Amino acid sequence: MSSALYRKPLVGLLGLMVGFLTQPLGHTAYKVMEAVFAESVYPAAVVVGIVGFVIVWRGLKQDELKATWMGMLGGWLIWIGWFEYAFKFFSVLYAMPSFPVEVDGYAAAPQANMLQATVTIMFAILLLYGVFNLQTKCNFMRFFHRNLRFSPGMPTPENHRSFARITAMEVIFVTWFCYQFWLYMIYFGTRGTGVQIVMATYLAWSAWAAYLVYKCTQQVRMAPALRYGVGAGIVLWGSAEMPAHFGAYREYWLYPLEYPIFNAVLTVLFVAGIVAIARRPLPQSAAKSAGLNT
């Protein structure tokens, strides 16, 4: 495999592509599971989540690169199985209607209402796990630390980082955050002056996404590039998906049986991206060290 793929800027764009594709393919997987398992979809979703946890667990003792892509894949499966389908299950269990009174023409799906109801849980975890985490190396969290004059200083150098767990949490939490953000934006701004607010927010969000894409192109190592690409890709997905909610185009990933070629191409790109990441050749020095230790 060409070594150019693992150099700046392609290495960062590879991580970005994989992170971005977790989003449409997550929707596709949701719909495929629904079609294949029918009434047994909830037990199947539990199994999918368990598989995700097993992948993360096995990644805990791996080297940084393997732990990172295993954490990404495991976190993705956990989100699909234990989050997406949990919202659906409880909305059915409690006979949750679409938003009972349309607000300016907007009626949320039942599972979206369940998801919106978790906003305080998400913010609690954000504060406890992110803002109050004195050892975080997350640039996003440390940005707030600096600007809110809450800088805890540099993280402890010897502090061991569990890359599988970190990456899995990133997939879950950033996906969760973006879902929440755009659901509330659509809720509050689908008609009247709210439309202008949504459009201004969309432009600001897209500018942020463009900045994150640029930062991806500056990555030089595969494992950090994937971790950065996961967050950047999910944010970029917001810019790509939102126009569909306003009728700009059809959400092809929600109709895998109607658009099998489109979804098959995305799947091939996703799998190929993970394979390319997993097959990243060791640096020469690391390879020699591994040879001496065998």
Précis, in short:
The chain is mainly alpha-helical and 294 residues long. It contains 11 helices and no strands. The protein has one domain (3-99, 115-151, 162-288).
Main structural class: mainly alpha
**3D shape:** globular
Got a strand count?
0
User: Radius of gyration from the CA trace?
Assistant: 20 Å
Mean pLDDT: 85
Report on the biggest sheet. Answer: none
How much helicity do the residues have? over 70%
Oligomeric grouping of the chains: single chain
Order of helices and strands: HHHHHHHHHHH
Q: Calculate the terminal CA-CA distance, rounded to whole Å.
A: 25 Å
Please count the helical segments: 11
User: Beta-sheet strand percentage?
Assistant: under 5%
Q: How many structurally independent domains?
A: 1
Which regions are unreliable across 5 or more consecutive residues at pLDDT < 50?
A: 284-294
